[in-house]
Amino acid sequence: MSEGIRKAIEEMGFVQPMPVQEEVIPYLLGNKNDVIALAQTGTGKTAAFGIPVLQRISEIPHPQMGEIGRGLPHALILAPTRELCLQIADDMRDFAKYLDGIHIEAVYGGASIEQQIRALRKGVQVVVATPGRLIDLMKRGVAKLDDVQNVVLDEADEMLNMGFQESIDEILENVPEDRNTLLFSATMSREIERIAKGYLHDYKEIVVGSRNEGAEHVNHIYYMVNAKDKYLALKRLVDYYPRIFAIIFCRTKMETQEVADKLIKDGYNAESLHGDLSQQQRDLTMQKFRQHTVQLLVATDVAARGLDVDDLTHVINYGLPDDIENYTHRSGRTGRAGKKGTSISIVHSREKHKIRNIEKEIGKQFEQGTIPSAEEICKKQLYKVMDQIVKADVDEDQIAPFMQDISRYFEYVDKDDLIKKIVSLEFGKFLAYYADAPEIEPVSSKNKAEKTERGKKGKKTATPTSEGYCKLFINLGKKDGFYPGELMQFLNKNVHGHVAVGHIDLLTTMSYFEVPEEDAERVIKYVNGQRYKNREVRCNDAEEGGKPAKVSRKSRATRESRPSRESRSSRPSRDTRNSRDTKTYKKEDWMKFLKGEVPDFSEEGWAIRKPRKKK
After folding, report:
1. Which of 20, 69, 77, 395 is most deeply buried (CB count within 10 A of its CB)?
2. Which domains does the chain have, with CATH numbers?
3. pTM for this model (two decimals)
4. By the 8 A CB rule, do 286 and 273 touch?
């Protein structure tokens, strides 16, 4: 390896090569050595291909190295996203810091193509590109690949998932046959094997770990909650890890923005990252996250690709992805460079089968976690506040001019009272919230058993009725063009006064819908006997099995004897009586949390380190 590259990587803090680097670098230094490397994000892939690529270019006689006006690169690196493209180009420039005459250019969509054209025409040795923009430049006759000797496809599986298969085929058909090709992927799919067979020659497969396995230093935990409690569970988990530094993955752009807005509204240091944001907004958000000025980044899978951030303590899956490969990429964001990390999944009962499928694929077992109690959260937050106060840096010169006034102001304040007031300023919001925090109901296996039993009996009311609601039957279904929108319009038109509607089950010839128990009689009264598209409407309690509604005095008395939603919720349930979260905490009794052992902060303690500054 050249002296210039060695000097550069020593300045960057490289001490010992990582496993993927030990395997790939020596092999790539040879000629016609094609490689497929299966490795997770954060295993040192950029150095694994960047160092040998630069070493081979530095050995080329200087006059051949991209004279001004030729614009013929010797290495081509393809990446799925703009962010990853920029990250690779920055790392390559750091590696080539002491190499003369080597120019590296990143070309990608969302930026001025004219500026990229000018850079290529001046002459570059390494092009880092997204497939779409590179093809555009090829069609304009600017990006000429005739002298390319090294081709790297980084995160090839993600490029294929994003629909770049035809673009990759077109690019590889326009580079010389006599080249080195390196394909990096976190997983080995059929599409990856197809590209390997079509464009790689006698390739070597290098596997860091096992095929398709999850990152080695990542713990996988899932929390089973009802769908309506997902956000409450997210808040509790974030509160339980005061020094958390995490990416929260959501399935859609809309969900991403909604979760981020809720977190910001509730006082958390959070930002959103998704495709509906402008490129300038995305760049600013990622810059703040890399600098650790944002604690929680709520993102979609695509938008977070290429986001290279050190010291992530957690990855939180706010719902599991449909594709197991996406989970592998998500969890690989933490536990990097030999550090520990945790991948948390907040799932509901219908997603449990995905957990089992992921376990089989990555070869690791998930641990089922228990949502932290209010007392556990408050205790950890209290110790965090005390730790911050004790370890706060004091600039004596800066505060000295004010100390006389400060001492005079607090002269008659008791020391213990002062401590309480300082702690309460920081800690009071948690006590205030968790004193009356909404309760997260455990996922009951009873409902599942009832659902199975109902299915065996052939009844249509398989979905359990929500607490405080009454399920009603109506003799209209999809065959009648009766959908949720039509149901709401029908109720608004015929029922006097506002009615909240819960879960709706639409079948072919009939439907079931939930209304608050106190509104059930009123809905039946006004809906039963109405006409919908020349059809007489029947509506009654679903427990009556869909029979014509005849509300007798007896049934009315029975319904009136049933406890209302308010009275039922005020009476503690069996789960509530056994829960640790039923206590009410007041500001003045926060001292109770000082009892017992000091909470363990080791899991997330190293997250507060600032990222290394580049020289």
Report:
1. 77
2. 3-207 (3.40.50.300), 218-372 (3.40.50.300), 378-438+591-602 (no CATH), 445-570 (3.30.70.330)
3. 0.58
4. yes
